[in-house]
Amino acid sequence: MRRFSHISVLAVAALAALAACSKADLSADAVSNKEKSVGVQFTPAKYVTKADDDSKRAEFTGSSFGAYAWATAREGYFMENLDIIKKVILHDNVAWGPRDTTIYWPSKGTVDFICYYPRVVDEGYVYIDPSTIRYVNFDVTSKKTGTPGSYDGQVDLMYSTKAVGYSYVPDQAEEMGYTSVPAIFSHALAKVGIKAAQTYSLKTERGADGKIYTTRWEVRVTSAQFVGAATNGSATFTLNRQQQVSKGLVNWDKPARVKLVGERPTEFKVWTTGAKKFDQNLQLPEDGLLLDILTRNDMGYVTGGFKDIMPDIYMIPQMLESGVQQLELGITIKTFRSCEGGTEEPMGTERINRTVDLRIADSVEAWQINQHTIYYIMVSPAYGDGNGGNGTGDPLRPDYPVNPTDPDMGGGYVTFDPTMEDYLPAVIGI
Question: What is the pTM of this model?
């Protein structure tokens, strides 16, 4: 029998980088191409999704981006915030180049390039010079469209490594060629998602009368409010001065804050946050979000079952504080009971409210630049969590010892310890 239900944030994805591009290695040969045009063209290079794994890459999928460039042989801009699009050039070859014009390589000297996405003309929240990229008071909700809790119109801010020292060079054949400028993008924002599942659904046991009884729980998230996180902020990325190259790619140093984690100073790549905060009801079905039980493959690994309370959204990278960035949940738990496979009888409905702190001490202290944090929330419909109520085990692990359709509830049910006081002796005073 249920005493009370509880919510656990049992696992958080290990802050996998959205696109950790600092280790990408693209030589001039790797991005070169042959064509009888000497116009400057770009290769929006695939970027790695893990810093230590160059084999896993994601392609740039935008329709355009902005580009700045400076030439060593002339003053001022070589390109000033040009709109770069995918174009069909000679012989039906496709390349990325400036919209509505062609920019030709200078006859001498080299050119440095910085690309960014999306291109900004009038909004004025991004400023780029040869050694700095600045985002000023950018609001992640400013592009929000649709109904409350929907963020499908958000902007994914991206910036490229600086391509230094590129020039037009004829190849060794007698055919004209060009070097395509690599534009390797990283994400300037963080991404955060929140998912939920139910720990178990059934408990089947034999009663004292010899019959088989089944208790079933149905859990719905009826309300969810995302509060306290900063929606706006500013950040300055500065060119890494330790990377002195005459030709190649130069990374940017990200803004950072240092915080003691345990007794160790730890650096977190975050923005300077503004004053605006989320206070947003997340979009849920009208009758609530019915939670699923985790499904697993033969090896025990989770293959499904989590549902989105908050689909992945772009977030201002920020330090987390206990009691500030939170998820406020309203949950309804319905209990049913049946005997020998007969008709289920409702045993009652419980409505609870819980607040989930999104800072997890020593684990998730910040939402960092170019990182993706996923919270996995497990809702137990009764006091026990399937391990006998002792809270051990991680449902995401293949060795999790709980059978979701017949959990070991241990002490998670109501028992009695009957005792009786004896008669008090009568005292007669004289």
Answer: 0.84
